[in-house]
Amino acid sequence: MREALRQVWANPYVRVATLLVGLWLVYLLLVRTASVWVGFLIAYTLAYLADPLVSGLERRRVRRAFGVLLVYALFFLLLGLASVLLAEVVVQLSQLSERLPAVLQPFNGWVDRLPEMLRRWAEVPEVQAVLAHVSASLQALIQGFSNTLVAWLGNLVGRGGNLISSLAALAGGLVQLFVVFVITGYLMADFPRVNAALLEALPRPWQPLVLELAGKLDRAVGGYIRGQLLVAVLVGLTVGIGLALVGVPMAAALGFIAGLFNLVPYLGVVVSLVPTVLLAFTVSGWTVVGALVVFLLANQLEANLFSPYILGRATELHPITVMLSILTGAALFGLWGAMLAVPTMAFVKVLYTDYYLPSRCHERGC
Question: Angle 251-261/267-281 helices, nearest 10 degrees?
Fold first, then answer.
């Protein structure tokens, strides 16, 4: 029987069919358990990001388990600080909504004169033609938006979005989040041994190359993360100090928001601009102008100084390559593309310089 099976296995068609069936079964398994693996990947990523801090504490003779607790304490402290600052901004904006009529009082005279100005402009024949075209386009746009909204509401009602299912989904999300935090803690506590076990699962001839690639990837991604954190801190300090100098309320909280969202390149300045302008309106029009100048300065510093030079040095990429990779990643994959573009490009450059340039294909032609 064993000899018969050996002869059957010697047939290449049997091996290919077995491989295809095995791949199909693995695909089905991954699809059925996708949420589990996504949670594990998130937990592994969090443990990877926190491992340098835990390892640094361990080198200073702090037990690894206690270091994990310190990392969790630091995380929840930052989360509490962020919640307090964001809550203060929300309170300020809610108070602004109550004082909005008084804030807009200087514009009432201009608004009162606006109909007369528009009437005089509308009497010009060329303007009438443009207004007719704009009116038709606006009507078509509103009609399309209404149809889309009605269809979306119909789909929402058709799916039966009741309270019980919403609460069940929320409870499931909270349970999954708790499980991710627990797995992250275990991974941080045993991160070196987990990596060793994953490496040992690979075929032994592959292990040296995989270990070398993992080290290069760690240097590229780690350099980007450290550089992006430094850029976020610098942008937050620039916005916070600048807004405080021009007299905008809640300058520290707004700077924190700008730095936090700037973990995605160039997003922090855009996200914090709207609440800053609204809060600046409570002071004066010149404060709004000063706030806009601060954001323009922060944006130019980030685009032309912080991101190109800090991220460029951290990932050994030219500033033009950094900016082009961010724009390309955002155009292809949106927010996640912008976040992952620079470390991906840094790793591609490592493969290019360390493996392609010394290769026979590059030296003598493929």
Answer: 160
Q: Which pair of structure tokens corresponds to residue 179?
A: 């499980």
61: alpha, beta or left, given left = phi > 0 and alpha = psi -120 to 50?
A: left
Are the CB atoms for 69 and 210 separated by under 8 Å? no
154 CB-near residues (< 8 Å, 6+ apart): none
Cβ contact 243:299 at 8 Å: no
Q: How many CB atoms lie within 10 A of CB 263?
A: 15
DSSP letter string, 132-173:
HHHHHHHHHHHHHHHHHHHHHHHHHHHTT--HHHHHHHHHHH
The lowest-confidence range among 61-70, 78-87, 93-102, 181-190 is 93-102
Listed in sequence order, the DSSP H helices in the chain are: 2-9, 12-32, 34-59, 64-103, 108-122, 125-158, 163-189, 191-200, 207-246, 251-261, 267-281, 285-301, 312-315, 319-351, 360-364
Q: Provide the pLDDT for residue 293.
A: 92
Q: Is the pLDDT of residue 17 over 80?
A: yes
How many whole angstroms separate alpha carbon 46 and alpha carbon 158?
38
CB atoms closer than 10 angstroms to residue 333: 13
Crossing angle of helices 285-301 and 267-281, rounded to 10°: 170
CB burial of 268-281 (b: ≥16 within 10 Å; e: otherwise) equals: bbeebbebbebbbb
Integer Cα distance of 328 and 265 in angstroms: 13
Residue written as token pair 């409870």: 171
pTM: 0.62
- Distance, in Å, from the CA atom of 298 to the CA atom of 266, rounded to the nearest integer, reads 10
Q: What is the DSSP letter of 12?
A: H
Name the burial class of residue 219, with classes exposed (0-12), middle (13-18) and buried (19+) by CB atoms within 10 angstroms of its CB.
middle
Query: DSSP of 210-252, one letter per residue?
Result: HHHHHHHHHHHHHHHHHHHHHHHHHHHHHHHHHHHHHT-TTHH
CB 232 within 8 A of CB 268: yes
- Residue appearing with tokens 């392609």: 356
Smallest Cα–Cα separation from 45: which of 227, 268, 307, 221? 221
CA distance 159 to 241: 49
